[in-house]
Design brief:
Aminopeptidase, 2 helices, 6 strands, disordered N terminus, alpha+beta, single chain
């Protein structure tokens, strides 16, 4: 809430439902004309309700993201994140992302081939 979609043409946002309950959220962007390659097919955010974690919800959401990317003609998806003990690195590695570089701010750029 309070965030705005920068480009509705390229933004891809989805919720994950368990029955009628929202248990997760994913925000990505698909823009083959983005000036930086790392932003052409990128996972911006993934959230899974704390009480619902470790049930495969995040993996399911990332798999759906990869299906969408494939349908749009992409062969990989990127994600950018900060490292740290409480960070998302273990999750991203568990779903196939591998570090390929860093941003100018020291964040990890990771990629999964689809």
């Amino acid at each position: 809430m309070g965030e705005e979609v920068v480009n509705p043409r390229t933004s891809w946002q989805r919720v994950v439902l368990d029955d009628e309950h929202v248990v997760g959220f994913l925000s990505a962007n698909f823009d083959p004309e983005a000036p930086y390659e790392r932003f052409r097919a990128v996972l911006w955010r993934i959230n899974v309700d704390a009480d619902e974690q470790r049930r495969g919800i995040g993996r399911f959401a990332v798999e759906k993201l990869m299906e969408e990317a494939r349908q749009r003609g992409f062969d990989h998806v990127n994600v950018i994140y900060d490292t740290g003990d409480a960070g998302p690195e273990a999750f991203f590695r568990s779903v196939g992302f591998a570090p390929i570089g860093e941003t100018e701010f020291g964040e990890v750029i990771a990629q999964v081939h689809i």
